[in-house]
Amino acid sequence: MDGWEWDATLFAGAAPYYGRGRLPYAPGLAQTLAGVLAPDGRGRLLDVGCGPGTLALLLAPLFGEVVGVDPDPEMIAEARRQAAEHKVAHRTRWLRARAEELPPRLGLFDVAVFAQSFHWMDRELVAATTRDLLRPGGALVHVSDVKTGSRGVDGLPHPAVPYAAIDELVRHYLGPVRRAGQGVLTRGTPSGEREILTRAGFSGPRRHVVPGGQALVRTEDDVVAWVFSMSFSAPHLFGPRREEFEAALRELLRQASPRGRFSERGPGTDVFVWRTGPGPRP
What we know:
There is one protein chain. Helices cover 32% and strands 23% of the residues. Helix 1 packs across helix 8, helix 5 crosses helix 7 and helix 6 runs antiparallel to helix 9. It is α/β, with parallel strands linked by helices. Helix 4 links the parallel strand 2 and strand 3. The strands form three sheets. A seven-stranded mixed beta sheet has the order 3-2-1-4-5-11-8, with helices on both faces. The protein has a two-stranded antiparallel sheet with strand order 6-7. Strands 9-10 form a two-stranded antiparallel ribbon. The chain has nine helices and eleven strands. It has a single domain, classed as Rossmann fold (3-Layer(aba) Sandwich), CATH 3.40.50. GO terms for molecular function: methyltransferase activity. Keywords: Methyltransferase, Transferase.
């Protein structure tokens, strides 16, 4: 990524805001994956770059064991807390580590998922490592928001979230080039997953789109949490001006919606399923 290197501050301070701020996956994602993967409730799931466990916890009822891996200690702590709250702690394990450091001692898995995390990694290395951790016929699942389609709020009761104005405010405080940890992303995050996974020995993919479009109501606090949950506007990036920035952000949001409510439509979810080769379904 044009000289950018990962560092431990990428999502520093973002974990407490993640669950509230991030938009939910499309309804029916777990059911779609259950239909595609046909788990028997005894298999093992590896969530690489699990964050606070959002997807891992959603899928935990489908597997005998779920292992979440993330390098951020606050994300791992939040995942553990959420697992206990959802009463699935007995079937989850959480490991603080980079994806590039996945140890063979983790054993073999039936499914590995990457939920909007693969682009932060040494993708060639991680693809090969993950391939070695999957059973024959196992699946690598890449999950992301659908980037196309209209998400207008016509007919909904509240104003839209003023994303363009928020972006401008962030640039005013942090500069014109997108921040990421201690570095910047001059060209954004990379693409080309298809070529990388094919070279690593995966076949496919099969694409499944889970439709979104559900009407959501977002509060001022929800939108502030969304901002602080993002790598390009994580709390630590603002340094001593963090409180000043948050005050300016809240003022911007109150001007956009004096009642402190925003309407939004949930994004669809893109699911790409890759296989390790001929063999039984997991």
